[in-house]
Structure formats: structure tokens, C-alpha cells
Amino acid sequence: MTTEMALTLFGEDDLVRPAGNADRFTTRWRLIGAGLSNVWRYGDLHLDAPSGRLLLRGPNGTGKTTALETLWPYLLDLNAQRLAAGKARPTSLALLMREGANGSKRRCGYVWLTLAAPQGEGVISYGVRLLYSESASPAVKVTPFTIPGVPLRDVPLYGPDRGFTSAEQFSDNIATAGGIVFTDEDAYVAHLASRLWATREREVVELANRIRAVRNPTLLGDVSPRAAADNLRDALPGVSDDIVSATADALAESESTRTAFEKDRRAAEALDRFAEAWSGHIVEIAGHALAALRHNISAHDKAVKDARAAVTKHAAAQTAWQDLDQQARNLRNEAKDLDSQLHALEESEPYKDAGRLADMQEKVAAQNRAADIAVRSFRREVSATADRATKLRTTAEDLAEDLATLSASARAVDADAMPGRSPLTWTTRPRPLLDIGDETADPGPQTTIDYDEQILDDTAENWKRLAGEYRRRGDAALLAIRDRVETTTAEAEAERCERVSRARRADADRDKTQLDLKAKAARTAAAHLLDDIDTWHDTNRALAPAVQAACREETSDATDAWYPPGTNELRDLEIAQVLTEAEQLAAAVTTAGRTAVSVLRHHSHLSAQEAKRLRARSKELRERARALRTGRLLPIPRPEWAGPAENGETFADALDWHPDITDPDVRARLENGLAASGLLGATLQADALHTPAWSVHATAQPAPASLADVLTVDPEHPHSHLAEQILRRIPLAATSTEGPAGLVIGRDGTYATGPLHGRPPGVDDPGQLRPAEYIGAKQRRQAALRHADALDADADTLDHDAGNHDTSASRAQHEAAQISGALHAYPSRVHAATAEAGRAAAASKAAESEETAKTAAEDAAAQRELARSLRLEWELRTRAQHLPIAVPALETLRDTAAGSAGTLENLTSQLTGRHRDRLRRLAQSAAEDTRATATLPAEHAAAATIADEARSLATLHRELVDAVGLDSNEALRKHSLAKTQRDHVGREIRRVDGLLQTADRERIQAEEKAGAATSRAAEATQPVNDACTGLRTLLAAPGVPDALLTDPAMADLPDDAHALADVAQKALHGRRTTSRKLLRERYDTCRADLAGLWTLDPDEPVDALDTYVLTHDSVAYTPPAAAAEGRYLRERAQAALSRAEESALQEFVIGRLPLAIGTAWVKIDDWIRDVNRKMQKAAASSGVGVRISKTLLKDLNAAELTVYRLACKESTRTAAQQTEVGDALQALIAAADGATMTERLTNAVDIRRWLDISYEIIRPDGQINRWTSKTGLSGGERRLVVLAPMLAAVAAYYDQLDTAGLRLTALDEVPAEVDERGREGLARYLADLDLDLICTSYLWDGAPGAWDGIDAWDLEAGPDTTVVAFPMLVRGPEPLPGDPMGA
Predict the structure, then answer these.
(1) DSSP H helical segments within 347-452, as ranges?
(2) pLDDT digits (tens, 9 = 90+) for 1011-1020
């Protein structure tokens, strides 16, 4: 096989240099090994991987996936709950330690990764110690550690006979080796994050989640395009966790402040409710005490009044008795004087002469007295008869009038109450006059009384019946009124709903008008926006080609975004669609512009770098030319297979051209063949001519035609003799195929080395033939000078090219500045968006108002119908009770029925009580009058007889007086006058004595009554004092003054009972009472409401008043004081809440979040661009590639659109925009889900959810289609389509961390559906992403030639099921630093 044939077996695409970043061996942390010891069924597995890539191979059941699960990413976050690489796998720490334990109940194992630090700083291992005990909980205790070196090799981990050490011994061993035993998993993760990536554990946990997402690509291959896009969306960078955390802390503080405020507010409300209830209880108890005081005061005042009246009566009785006693003494003195006068008269002669007349006079007097008595008696009887007749008539008239009044009163109540006739009637007829002597007596008319008690009973019964009927109707009216409450309420509610409906309709009409105005303004703003967009595109049309070219270079969708979009078709769209399209245009323009700016700046940077490189290269060439001109010769060419030159001089240094060989073409062909064969660059030593592949010794016979025919030897060369001998022994032929076996040089430039033949470039194509330059000192010198000239010429070209690159850089920078300036001048959508937002808000408000108006109208109609039906039902029920349906009539009936019934009952009571008795007495009096009047004629006859006899005797006496004379008459007259006076005084004495006795009795009785009344008044004072004391004690009880005596004038309670009662009455006036039952119910509810903040306990009662004590912060309060303190705490919490919310709003929600969201938006763009750039190197064997695209979702709500517009698209905001974006963020936070404020805030500002992420399939012909469930992909293509972006996402996440950090990912079962070329592409892709790898596969060969190496370990299970591993290293042509294989 010839060299020419070998070279034509491969195309240019096949001869690709193996991928791999050589700088990873010095600039960052990298994987160099892993280990498992006494875990699962492994013994001691040392899995060295100096390439940074570890491949675990073997049949099923040998623990490939189990080892991967145990190693990575478990050793990243130590999350034992997520060990399993698939839902069907039961992997757990307990299973890992139980499996392979051979029944042992205790076991100790180790798992670790060994990493090389950057800059040769040494080898570090990170791992865990797994201590298993079947009876422990948990069964496996995890102890993380790190040590310098490799476990087991450099640091012993077991005791004698592989016994596991105690925790203390293990810690000592690790510490002795210079390692660390971590107290827990969190400390391990924190140390790992800080040491390997200079970050926090949160980022490490997220990194572990992303690695788990790509660890099992067979699961990823089954996901739908939508699910794959969702998984990829989760990998996008988001808002800074620090900002989210700080903002969440501030908002959480605000929220905690709000929670504290709510607690204080609810506590204040509960305290107010309880204080109100307790105040009502005070009012009730104080009211009872006040009533008792008022009663006692009234009793006391009455007793005092009675005592004063009794004392007054006693004084009057005493005075009357004294006056009567004096009058009696005066009368007795007068009687003594008259007795003396009578005795003197009786001793005189005239009196004695008149003796006879005296006797006669006595008889006349006696007869006259008897007649007078009889007449007076008769007259009294007649007068009594007349009086009885008058009284009967008067009584009958009074009774009749009273009965008529009763009947009239009853009839006023009810017409049916009028009796048919009166139970009382009477008649009168005159009696005859009665004469006695010259006098006439009138006995008065005779009155006959007719009283029918049955009529009275019937009337009373009727009135009772009517009273009962009125009571029943009054109760029925009351019930009907109460029954109508629901109807009345419904009618009032219907009226209210009607008013609300009219108001809502007015609001809806007003909002509709406002909507029309807003819509017109929004349409105008949208039209202006489209005009501005057209103007902007016209203005910047010249920049469009540059933007288009840059976007095509970046394979961006927005290649034509800077060309006029044609907005005419947009002008007929809805305003929201116009804004959406405008935003998309703006996004496309911005994306294209930023892409163009980035590309142009990148081009500028590259051009500047290239100019710098070219100038450096020019400088290097000029230095080389200068060196060549100062004597340095050109190096002798050597073929690649010959390797570098060994120590010593080359064969060419000893040679020169034979004088006969002067043809430049001959020289060129010979020199070309000698160089390609390796002879010119071979090392000439004392014994032979050497190359790494062969050597030539001067032991064979000289060739008939040899190189000595065309070459000579420099005699001054130290090995000239050997060189000459070698020349003679290397055959020279016209062409190498005509020579003998072995090394042959052809004159045509070919050569042969045994069975191999070579035809260097230039043999067949003279244009590729280089002139002879390396044989002969003179020729080499001339060649060096020519090469120096060529180098200078190349340097001039490089300088010229550098200038061109500087021009390109300046042009690109200028274009980037123009594009950037145009971007800043792109028409703002703020005004149109604000107008549309106003229109949308107005539309929403109008729709809401219209809906509200319709709802209000429906509610009003429903309420009217409800009121009507309730009213009809009520009227039916009311009419069924024979009641009026007019509410005023019912109210009148309710208010008057009881009074009417009471009036009738009272009238009945009067009729059957007092009036019945009066009627009965009247009838009895009439009967008695009849009996008394029956004796009047006999009494008249007797009185007339006695009067006639007295007149006869008086006539006889006068005749005798005339016969006796005047003296005796005078004596008799004086005696009679004195006697009369004496009799009168005697009667007066008897009368006065009687009155005196009566007055004495009355005096004594009045004295006794006055004493008793005075005693009662004195006794009534103590209850008043006691009542005052009780009320005063009650009003002075703790908390009572705060509840009742709120007027400062009531601060000092008066001592006077009446004044105290007035103060209490004023304090209680208008206050509601609370029953003890309600108070205790309120106590139970408020005690529960106050739990955790206040304690509420009963206190010692004050008389009948229940008292309570409330405690807060160890301070006791009465209910009113607690209510006041609660209000103060509520107001203080309100102020703190306002401050916290304002601080959180200004500093974080407005101050930090918008900037963080804008930064995240830029990072997403950069991330997608970076991932797409990385994925340009990933393609299936079919040529199918993939890239990621993003678009803004069209169903974002108003708040999300506002934040997108003001935070993602605007870098500077006005004060009004700051307020607007703050309001929008607050709305998003309020609507977000989450158990904590951090979760709510994270969800609220997760701008990744605003994006529609899609995979785009790039066909070999350049066609780009969005990947959907209908896109035709093979199984291998599908695996790579899903896996490539996820791996790029992992690499991008590593890019965000420390550049010197570890970049390790994991793959379980490298996709079997992917063909060999696809797997090689995957390997090259992983290497280009600069990712270290731990992966598993069944038979994958590790893709030799695709990358610079991978360390494969074949796992096998022995007869005892112990798994062992055998290495199979795959390497590229270049040795790897620190690789034992290279050594």
C-alpha cells in the first residue's frame, strides 16, 4: 500500500482533530477519579479518570447506574431522597448498604470523587462515610469529609482486618491527613460550593437539580416537545436570588408587620367588644343599685315627710288640748259665779212669792219641753225622711250618671259595648204635707229604686268578651306587624336595589362614555406609534443590511426586523394586537439590534484582535527575517512520522551538491524526495544515520547508482567519512519503483522504504515543487536570505491586512454605535401602551360596570319580585286573621288594642266592683227608707197631741202670772236667766270636758304617731346610706370610672344621696345593658380571640358586679384600660406597617426589582445566544441540528405586560413609570402563589414563565422548523434534540459560576438509539462544552478519535457477586497531562 493510496482513503471532513480543551488541565478543577468501597456489591473500586471523563461499562446487573447514582450528583448536594436515576429504581442509602452485606447487620462503606485543583495545587477528594445499622433510625448515618489525596491509597479508612473505625478514630485519621470531617450535610455542601465554585449552597443545589435532569436521557427522550421546552425554560437564568431574597425578606418583614398589625387589630376589636360588654354589665348592675338607692331615698323622704306631718299634728293636738283645758277652767269659774247668783235670788222674797208661779212655770216648761222634743223629733224624722228621699234620688242620679259614663266609655271603645238598658231605674211621687200646730212639715217625695243585677252581669260579661277580643286582635296585629318585617325588609331592600340599579346604570353609562374616549385616545396613540415606527424604519433603512447580515451570522430569526415591516395591515387590527405586534416588532428590532451590536462589537473586537495578532505575527516574521539575515539558517524539514530531531547534526549539514548537478529542477526533485523520506533531517551520529522510525548503517555493499552520484560530503564535517559511506549505500534510481528493495531515492522526487512508496507533493504537480534550499552551505544561506525577504514581504502583507482589520474594526464599531443609537431612538410604546392600558382598564371597568349594572338590575327585579310575593303572602295571612292590611291601621290596632282591652277590663272591674256595691247599697237604702217611712203617720199624731196639751198649759200659766205681779216676775226672770246661763255653762262644761277628753286622746295618739314616724325616718336613713355606699363602691371599682364616669365633672362623687343618684343617672343615661349570660359568652369568645397576646381572667367580684383582669406583657389592665391599650397598640402597629410597606416598596419593589428583572432579561438573551452558539457544534449523523428560540407569550396580563414594558425593555424610567411598575409588581406579588413570601415573590417575578420556549430543528438543507409532536425525527435525533440543549444549559450554568470551578455532568446509558456517528458527535459536543463526565453504557467504545480521551472501566460480577472493574483507556494522538498511559 502506497502513501498516496492511504491519503486518498479519507475525506477532509474525516480528518478532524480530536476535541478537548487542553487548558482544563491547568485552569480549573477537574475530575481525575472516583471510588466506592464496601458499598452495594462493590469491593474497593478505584476508578481513575485522568482524562476527566469516566465511562462505566458492563452488562446489566453489574451496578453501572447504581455507581453513577451513588457518585454524582449525590456527592454534590447529598440529597439521599433523589438518589434514583429513574422512577422505577428503588435506590436508597439503606439499599446500597444492605445489598452485598451478606446478612451483616452493620456495615461501613465509602464513596468519593477525586479532583485535581487548578494550577497544579494538588489532589483533593470529597466523599462520605456510610455507617449502616439495621436497628438504627435512620439506618444509614452519613458523614461527609474531604481529604488531600485519594482515600485508601493515601489515607487509611479502615482498621485492622478492614474493621470499621469509630467516629472519633475516623475523624482523627482525616484530621491527621489534613482533611475535614463535616458536622452535617449542609456544612459539606457550603464548603464544596465555596471551594469549588466560590458560590453559595443554593446555586449548588440548583446545579444538582439540572444535572439530575440530564442524567437519564432515555427519560428525556420520551418527553413531549412541550415538556422538553418547559424543562429547558426552568434552566433559563432568572432574577437574582439575592435580590429576590432581599426583597422577599423586606416584604416578609412587611408581611410579618402586617401579621402583627392584624393580630393587634383583631385583639383591639376583641378588647373593644369585651369592654363594651363589660360596660353594659356595669350599666345593668349600676342600674339595679341606682334603682335600689332611688327606692330607699323615696322611702326615706316619705318617712321624713310623714314624721314631719305627725310632729305637726302632735303640736296641733297639744295646742288644741291646752286651749280646751283653759276653756274648761274658765267655764267652771263662770259656773261658780252663776251658782252664787242663783243662791242669792232664791233667798229673795219676790222669788219666794213666785213659788207658785215657779211650779206652774216648771210644769209649763216641762210640757213645752216635751212638746218641743216631740215636735223636734217629728221634724227630725220628717227631715230624715226628706233627706233619705233626696239622698236616694241623688245617689240614684249619681249612679245613673256613673253607669252612663261607664257605658259611654265602653261605647267609645266599641259600639257593641253599649248595654241595651241600664240596670238601675227609679221613680218619685210626692208625699202629703204634715201639720203640727201652726207649723207644716214636708216629708219630701217618695223615691222607688228598681235595680236589675242580671243586666249588670250581662253588661260586664259583654265587656269582658270585647276586651278579650281586643287583646286577641292586638296580639294578632302585633304578630302581623312582626310577620311583615320580612316583607318590609324585602321592600326596603328592593327599593335600595332599585336605587343601586339606577346608580350602577348611571355608572355604566358614564364608564361607557369614558371607554369611548379612552378607545379613541388609544387608537390615536396606536396610529401615532405606527407612524413613528414607519418613520424610524425609513430613517434607519441604511442600517438594515448590516443588522440583517449580523443576524444571519447568528442564525437569528430577526434577520429582516430592521426593514420596513409594512404597518398598513396593522392599522385595522385591535389596539391590543397592534401593541402586541409593536412589542414583537420592538422585540425583534431590539433583538436584532442587540444581536447586530453584539456581533459588530464582536467583529470589531475580533478584527482588533486579528489586527493585533497580525502585527504580532508581522513582528515575529520580521524578527525571524532579521535572525536569518544575521546568519541563522533554515531548519531542515522532517516528516511528521519522523518526530523531532534527536540531539546531533542533521544529515543535510554534511552534504553539498555534486558539481555536475546544476539543474534546479533536478536539485529540487532530489531534495524533495530526501526531505520526505526523512534522510535530510535524519541525525548523523558516529555509528549511523538515525530517525525514530529507521536507521541507516554503512555496513551494506555500495550501490551501483547511489546518492554519491548527485551529492558530495563536506570534508570539514566531523562525520564526513561516515556520510560519504552512507551516500554510496543509498540507491539512486530514476524513480523509486525501479530501484532495489529497501531505501531508494528516485531522481523524480519519489522514495521507497521497503514495501511503502511515497510521492511527495510536487512529483506529479510541478507547481507544488519547492526549490532546493537545504543542501549545501551556500545554497542554504541564499535560501535563508530569500526566506528573510519573503518573511519581510509577508510581514508587509500582514501589516497591510492589520490596517484593513483596524478599518473593519472601526467600521464595525461605528455601525454598532449607529445601531445602538437607533435602538435608543426606537419609538417608545409607553404612550400607546399607557393609552391602551387606560382603554383596557376603561374597557374592563366598563364591562365590569355593565355587568354590575345588569347584575344590579337583575337583583333589583328579583328583589322586587321577592318583595311582591312576600307582600301577597302576608296580605293573605293577614286577611285570614280578619285584620286590616294597611300597616298604619295595624299599628293603630296594635297600639290601641291593649288600651281598649284595658279600658274595657277596667270598666268591667268598676262595674262589677264598686258600682255593684253602690247599687246594692242603694237598693238596701231604698228598702230601709220604705220601712222608716211607714211609722211617720203615728209619730205625726203623737207629736200633735203633745203640742196641743203644751199650748193649753201655757195659756193657764200666763193667766197666773198676770195675777201675781211684776216683782216676782222680775225675780223669776232673773232667776230663770241665771238658771239658763248656769245650765248653759254646765252644758258647755260637759261639752268642753268631752272635747278635752277627745283632745287628750288625740294628743296622746299624735305623740305616739310622731314618735313612731320619727323612728321610721331614722330607720330609713341607714338603707339610704347603705345604698349610697354600695353604689359609690360600685362606681369606684377598678375600670368602672373609665367605663361610666367619662365626664371630668363626675370625677369626684358627691356625698349627698340625691346628688349621687343624679350623677349615676346621668352616667347611665342612654347606655345599653348587657346580661350576665351574654357577658360570659363574650368572655369565652374574646378569651379565645386574645389567646397568645392577652390573657383574660375573672377577678374578685365587687358586690354583684363581675370583674375581669387582662394581662399583656406582664402588665394588668381593666377592660376599658385594655381596650385603650389595644387601640394604642393597633395604631402603633398600623404606623409600623405603613413604614415597612413604604420602605419595601421604595427600596426593593421599585428600587431593585425592576433593575434585577431587566438584568435577568438580558441574561436570558445572552444565555440563549450562548447555548445556541454551543449547540452549533451538535448535530445528529443525519445532519439534523437544534437551536432554541423564545417569544413573548401573548396572553400576559396587564401587570405582566407593564413589568415587561418598563423593566425588560426600558433601562431608565420616569417617576410616573416607577410608580406604575411598582404598582404592577405589587399586583403580581399579591396574585402569586406560595406558602412563603420568597416563594410568592419568586413566582411573581419568574419572567421565564412569560416566554414561549421552543426547540427549532435545523435540517441539513438549512430549513428551520419548530419541533412539535408532528415533527418527523428518528429516535436518535429525538434523543439528541432533547439532550443537546440540556447539556448546553448545564454548561451555561457552569459558565455563570467561577471559571476555575469543576464542570462535571452525568449521563446514564449514553443513548443507544443514537448511531455511532451521532455518539461521536455527542462526545465531541461534550468536549467542546468543556464538561467533565461520568457516564454509563452497555457497549459504547467511548468514541475514540472524537475527543482527546476517556477512561472506560468495564464492570464484572464475580462468582460471589462482588463487582470488580478493569480499565480500558481511550486516548487521542496527544498525551494528556498527568496521564499514566502517557508516561
Answers:
(1) 349-353, 355-413
(2) 888 888 888 8
286 φ/ψ angles, rounded to the nearest 5 degrees: -65, -35
The count of C-alpha atoms lying within 13 angstroms of the C-alpha of 951, restricted to the half-sphere facing its C-beta, is 10
Determine the 3-state secondary structure of 103 from DSSP. Answer: coil
Alpha-carbon distance values, 1297 to 204, 243, 347, 1300 (Å) = 10, 17, 167, 9
Answer for the pair 665, 675: CB distance below 8 angstroms, yes or no: no
Residues 6+ away with beta carbon under 8 Å from 857: 501, 504, 505
Residue 450, number of CB atoms within 10 A of its CB: 13
Mean per-residue pLDDT, 726-742 = 82
Q: What is this structure's pTM?
A: 0.43
Classify 577 as helix, strand or coil.
Answer: helix
Instruction: Give the whole-angstrom CA distance, residue 873 versus residue 863.
Output: 15
Cell numbers that stand for 485 in this block? 318585617
Contact 1126, 267 (CB under 8 A): yes
Q: Kindly give, in sequence order, each residue whose CB lies less than 8 Å from that of residue 16, ignoring residues fewer than 6 positions away.
A: none
Q: For residue 65, how many C-alpha atoms fall within 13 Å in the half-sphere facing its CB?
A: 21
Is residue 1357 within a helix (H) or strand (E), and if so which, with residue range? strand 1349-1357
Residue 563: CB partners within 8 Å, gap ≥ 6?
537, 541, 544, 548
> With 70 as the cut, is the pLDDT of residue 349 above it?
no
1058 burial via Cβ count (<10 Å: 0-12, 13-18, 19+): middle
Q: In sequence order, what are the beta bridge partners of 1112?
A: 1115
Handedness of CA 373, 374, 378, 379 (dihedral sign): negative
Cβ neighbours of 20 (radius 10 Å)? 25
Q: Percent of the chain, pLDDT > 90?
A: 9
> Using CA atoms, how far apart are residues 375 and 939, in angstroms rounded to an integer?
9
- How far apart CA 1354 and CA 63 sit, in angstroms, is 11
User: Is 1325:1177 a contact under the CB 8 Å cutoff?
Assistant: yes
Q: How far apart are the first and last CA of the chain?
A: 32
Cα–Cα distance, 1048 to 689 (Å, whole number): 127
pLDDT at 998: 85
Give the sheet arrangement for strand 732-733, strand by strand: 732-733, 743-746, 751-753, 756-758
The DSSP call for residue 1208 is: I
342 neighbors 975 (Cβ within 8 angstroms): yes
* Nearest residue to 1043 (alpha-carbon basis) of 278, 271, 267: 278
Task: For residues 1273 and 1181, give the distance between their C-alpha atoms in angstroms, rounded to a whole number.
Answer: 12
* Residue 515: pLDDT band with limits 50, 70, 90: confident
User: Residue 835 corresponds to which cell in the numbers above?
Assistant: 393609552
Q: Which domains does the chain have, with CATH numbers?
A: 1-224+1273-1383 (3.40.1140.10), 351-451+899-964 (no CATH), 635-772 (no CATH)
Do the beta carbons of residue 1343 and residue 1319 sit within 8 Å?
Answer: yes
Rounded Cα gap, residues 1247 and 1245, in angstroms = 6
Number of C-beta neighbours around residue 929 at 10 A: 21
My answer on whether omega of the bond before 138 falls inside 30° of 0, hence cis, is yes
Query: Is 484 strand, coil or helix?
Result: helix
> Which helix H or strand E contains 1205, and what residues bound it?
none
Q: 983 CB contacts (<8 Å, ≥6 apart)?
A: none
C-alpha cell, 1320 = 461521536
The identity of residue 72, as a single letter, is W
Closest CA to 951 of 440, 436, 1346, 1368: 436
Give the model's pLDDT for residue 187.
Answer: 92
Q: Which cell goes with 1068?
A: 347611665
The span from the CA of 1064 to the CA of 1085, in Å, is 30
594, HSE (Cβ side, Cα atoms, 13 Å): 13
| Residue 1108 in grid coordinates | 375581669
DSSP label of 281? H
Contact 1027, 293 (CB under 8 A): yes
